[in-house]
Structures are given as structure tokens and as C-alpha cells.
Amino acid sequence: MKKNKAIFITVRTGSTRLPNKSILKIKDKYTIEYVIDSVKKSKYTDKIVLCTTTLDGDNILCDIATKNGIEYFRGSVTDKLERWRGTCDKYGIDFFVTADGDDLLCEPELIDLAFEQYERTNTDFIQGKDIICGSFTYGIKSEALKKVCEIKDTDDTEMMWVYFTDTGLFNVQNLENVPKEYMRTDIRMTLDYEDDFKFFKNIFENLAVDFNLKDVLYYIDKNPNVKNINYYLEDKWSKNQQQKTKLVLKNEE
Known about the structure:
Elements: E1 5-10, E2 25-26, E3 29-30, H1 31-39, E4 47-53, H2 59-67, E5 71-75, H3 80-91, E6 95-100, H4 108-121, E7 125-127, E8 138-141, H5 142-151, H6 162-165, E9 172-174, H7 194-206, H8 213-222, H9 234-244
Parallel strand pairs: 1-4, 1-6, 4-5, 7-9
Antiparallel strand pairs: 2-3, 6-8, 7-8
Helix pairs in contact: 3-5
């Protein structure tokens, strides 16, 4: 039986550090549209779904999804896992790769490597290791997601990976066959602060219309000052994530 594979773009407008970051514009285009354009280049996905919340402020994201010819799903404001589960149920998805709305240069080649790895191994959870921040997020089997939703005891699942990696219940794998060009930890490509926006603005204003991540890396290596625009934020961002990451399970003492 064919397994249905999807890309879920996880996004909402309710950001605090950089307000409305998903609908800021670069060259008359919403930042979230750059994410949509990137994932549309996947060769193996059966469906692309923008996963957002039921808040009125996120109506614009649904309009953008429709305008760009992809589906959308509206669910919990704080519970990312339940939002994904609802999306899987609605569209009959067996495995999905997540693409954060922050990751304007997420790489379709890496997304497709995750799809291939799932087909090959039937793993529960795929994570990237030592690859460019913002180039790949996670691959998740829907059965594993449903199990996590049963055992968690919180609605705050923004930092959700620990439910897969730290419970000992799932087959967790690192993304395999990653091209060596992407094995870098000296570049930050995620939109969380004002200087992240300046970084992306520089990229999109200086490269040709249809470029890929390898083109971006070539440009950055020729112009190393570009990565210095926002890389200093990586430590601050990582510490913030660590502080917000917690594992809350049912039946805990």
C-alpha cells in the first residue's frame, strides 16, 4: 500500500521577538512565501499543508496558502503536536517532514532525503545533525506522533522533539546521506530576530530569482560578512530553546 507523504509548514503570526515575522516582506513577497516556494521543489511529497492556528490573526496565512496553491489546516494555538495530528487525520498522512515558517531557505534536497530514508527504514523520527541551522527540521511518522500525543501531559509543545528523542519509545535516526556542503554549523538561516531578517533580505536581494542552497553557500563564502549579520544570535537562540524545552509525561510523580 502506498504511504502518503507530506510537508507541513508550521507557522503562526503570533511571534514576540520579531512581530508578524511570517508576513514581513522582502522584494514584495511575504517571508512565508519563500518557505512555500522552497518546499514545492520536493520531488517526493504528495501534499503540502500550511499548519496554523484558529486565531483570527492567522487568517492571512490561510489566504496566502490558498493563493499559493497549497492546503492549510487550523488547530491548537500552543500545541504544535496536536495541530500536526489533526493535519495527519484530515489528509490521511503516514509520514511528514516539517518545515518551520522561520526557515526561508529550507532545502528540498534534504527533505527528499528524509522521505527516502523513511521509505527505506520505516523509522519513527528523523533529525538533522551538524547541518546548517534552518536547512532541515524533522521527519515524523504519524503513528509515532499519535503515541506522543497520548503520553504527553502539556499543551505547550513548541519544543517537541524531546518526546521522540528522550522517551526511549521510538526509533530515532539522524538524517543520512547529507551532502558534505550542508554539514556546517557556522551559518544561521532561521528568522527569529531583526538581524535574521536583515540576513535573509541580503540573500534574496543579491541572488538571482531561482537559486538553491548551494548557490547561497557560494555567495556567503564569497562574502563572509553576510553570515556575520546574524550568526552572533545563534548562542542566544539556542539557550532560549534549551530553557523552553521540557518533557512532561502523564503519570509522572
